[in-house]
Predict the 3D structure of the following.
Amino acid sequence: MQDYDIVIRNVGTKTITDANVQYDDFRSLGGIVSPGYGKSHQNPNYPIPEKATIEWRTEDGKLHQKEVEVKRHVPRNFRGDIQFEIDDNNEVKVKIVPDRY
């Protein structure tokens, strides 16, 4: 298994709730994510997926789901965070943040 963490980051200006990342049999922790903050699920013990589904609820109560490509963004022998950044336009970007060690 690869050594990585999953992070849901709210890069918008409004609080999101019921946030999680899903792939294979994995479902991350997340929940409520305030603007400018993130929630981390450390070492999910699954291979890095080809794609993942990100789910969250906006302040108006609407549930959003986005499927994004993951593995193509991740370099070989990667260690660090795979961040899913959610903005106010309900778009999701994958950001790769390598460990500094």
The mean pLDDT is 94. The beta strands are 4-10, 16-23, 26-27, 31-33, 38-41, 51-57, 63-69, 80-86, 92-98. The longest strand covers residues 16-23. The radius of gyration is 13 Å.
